[in-house]
Description:
This protein is an alpha+beta fold. It contains six helices and six strands, in the order H-H-H-E-H-E-E-H-E-E-E-H.
Amino acid sequence: MPHLKTHQLQHRNMPQYLQAWLYAEGSLTRQLTQLAQGQFQVEPITESYQRLDLFNARWMKMPHQHIAWVRESYLFGQDSQPWVKAKSIFPILSLRKKARIFPHIRQQPIGRFLFQRTTPKCQRRVLLLDEGWTRQSRYTWHGCQFIVQETFLPAFEQYLQSSR
């Protein structure tokens, strides 16, 4: 389970320059690509089947022993350092219909498929995790439910501060 700080503390200490990114709607892939003037790259870290942790199982209203396909990757913009650490959690029951494509997309961003000619239903929560400010989105897309978690890393924060 992620290390969480209190809700009030999160918002009081949230950097102003990150707020728009943490609460932005739509495709982070598209937004990062625009910010990086067309440069965007996904570098997968791990892909595996694992049990849902209790924190995310509760949010998805699923048993925590349920198995999910989990993909972790780094997202790069113009820098050689990653800007975002992404983690996508697809319960096995959600890997059907159109969503069955996700375990096979390799280095392509999930957002490229998720926002292609559709606007999925999204519930969002913003967390301060040990790795940094994180937004978690619970999407419902073509009847399938999954979580996309995006942690904004120090290199991204430095880029935002230097380009202001």
